[in-house]
Amino acid sequence: MTTESRRLPVPESPSAEAFRAFFETVELPAALCDTQLCLKLGNSAFARFCFDHGLTVEQMMEGLGQARMPEDGAACVVEVPLPQGGVVVMELARRGESISVVGRRESELMRGQLVVVEQALLEQARTEGVLLDLGRSVAEAGSEEELVAAVARGVKELFPGRAFCIRIIDARTGGLTSLYAEGRLKEGSREPLVLKRTAVEKMHLTAASIPVGKVVVAALVPLLFEGSTGGVSAPLVASGQLYGVINLEYPASLRDEPDPLQDERVLVQLANQVAVAVKNAKLIDELTFVRKYLEELLEKANALILVANRDKKVVVFNQAISRLTGFSKEEVLGQDVFSLVPEDEHLRLASVLAAAMRGEAVPNFELRLRTRAGEARVSFATSSALTSQGEVEGVMAIGQDVTVVAQLEQRVIHAEKLASMGKLAASVAHEINNPMTAVVAYSESLLQRAMMMGSAGAADSEKLRKILESGQRILRFTRDLTSYARPAKDKVERVQLNALVDKAVGYCEHVLTQSKVKVERDYGEMPPLPAVPANLEQVFVNLITNACHAMKPGGQVMLRTRREGREAVVWVKDTGSGIEPTHLSRIFEPFFTTKTEGNGTGLGLSIVQRIVEKHGGRLGVESELGQGTTFTVRLPLAD
């Protein structure tokens, strides 16, 4: 098998005439030049291109002569000024010693410009979208902290890769209230705030609105972050007040070349939106504080405050009236105001509410309020609660508990009684002492005569001795009555407490017999103690007598004495009906008594307490209904 080799024909290079013909048919305005930009060849499209732009071919080449030649294999764009203004764009490309020149048509220029415009519009749409989302976020922010966090998210999205700092201040004091920084701040860059003078002038900030010492106005704003190469800032201004500043800076590691003018324009838009939000947030905070302060003022006021709306529903019920009635705020709010008063007061209350709804004030209006324990009488002054338009929207009543005033008046009466007690006691003592002195003197004389008679007068001696002791006790009582207002100077002696209690039981023998009450004694070993014997006897006579009056026949009085440390203690306990809890705290008050008219003056326990306290002791009481009462007398022992 043989192989036949064939030589393929090599195409011949076009001739110069063929190249020129091809070059002429090209529709693009094109020309060939040497490295000195001297024209070698240009097509008819190139000549028309020059003519269309008001240039000759020679003028176009002269304009290109000012351009910088591209490197071999490279290309560049050259703008040639036109006589009528504007420029024409030419593309130069170099291949060896030849340079091609191609003119750009208007469509190509417009296409490039449209791309730029499209990119700008997309960026503007993105910016507006971020600002719109930011507006929603700051509007929903419930606090300054949430607002600053929302602004930080918006800044990150608008200016990726930048370092930034958001500082919020108090518009009045200039004090820093919030700070957020994305980046490493320099030492001491938190305060004071530095504002650019041109920005202050553009925002029309006055010197009065710039807090002295907290804000500085300068020609340039110093960089806040370490490693920054530049930056822009925008103050937060709303209604002529400064609320803070946002600083945006460019780290050295930023990839894209920043456009400070564009960044500043967008940052100002953002700052204007944020400033209004900060102002509103601070106004809301102030309104919330004022509202809470007023609510606390009404709630803690030392006066009865009640507010009802036009529907006569309770909307304010403060602590003072809650304590008086015993009803909690939760139980009353929203309820009908008539539910707080008895039914027979409804008509009077309705007339007062009607007058208040007409805008008429009703001073010194008294009525009864329902309470958990019964009723309380109060005095109110009412006024109309008005809306901002001057319309009546409810009734406010401020008052006081008249029951307390009545108690104070009663105490004044008691004090006046005590003040007159001295004079009364002196006259009573005078009227009693004269006949009783005679009784004591004659009984003492008869007792001595009976004792001299020996056994014949023994029976009478015991009776006369009791008459004498009872007469002396009456005289001592008159002295105690006088000493209640002006203490008598009785002589202190060392007494045996157990014997003194027994003596008091002897004085009460007739009461014990009449009441059919037994006495049980439980005495402990007791050292002598300093006391006025007659006065101390009166204490136990009163306590034993009261115990007898509190019991039915068959009751029992238990007397117990013990030593506890440096005190001698005596317990007087009965098996009676006990004392009402409401009366227990008042039994030592002068003139207070639970006995029927004519059976007590209410001075017994008051005098007993005074005698015990004069001895440096204490008088206590414990009682339970149906279980009896125990009085405790504590007296100091001698040192």
Mean pLDDT, nearest integer? Answer: 79
The class by helix and strand makeup works out as alpha+beta
How much helicity do the residues have? 40-55%
Shape: rod-shaped
Q: Roughly how many Å apart are the termini?
A: 155 Å
Unreliable stretches, pLDDT < 50, 5 or more residues?
1-6, 596-602
Rg on CA atoms, Å: 55 Å
Question: How many β strands by DSSP?
Answer: 23
| Proportion of residues in β-strands | 25-35%
Numbering strands along the chain, what is their spatial order in the largest sheet?
Answer: 2-1-5-4-3
Count of DSSP H/I helices = 17
What can be said about the biggest beta sheet? 5 strands, antiparallel
What does this 3D model show about the protein?
By secondary structure, the chain is of the alpha+beta class. Helix content is 43%, strand content 25%. Helix 4 runs antiparallel to helix 5, helix 4 packs parallel to helix 7 and helix 11 runs antiparallel to helix 12. The N terminus is likely disordered.
Summed up:
The protein is α+β, with helices and mostly antiparallel strands and 639 residues long.
Please render the helix and strand layout as text.
Elements: H1 16-25, E1 30-33, E2 39-42, H2 44-52, H3 57-64, E3 75-81, E4 87-95, E5 98-103, H4 106-140, H5 144-158, E6 163-169, E7 176-182, E8 193-196, H6 197-202, E9 215-218, E10 228-238, E11 241-251, H7 260-300, E12 304-309, E13 314-317, H8 319-325, H9 329-332, H10 346-357, E14 362-371, E15 374-386, E16 392-401, H11 402-452, H12 458-483, E17 493-495, H13 497-507, H14 509-515, E18 518-523, E19 529-531, H15 533-549, E20 556-564, E21 567-574, H16 581-584, H17 604-614, E22 618-624, E23 628-636
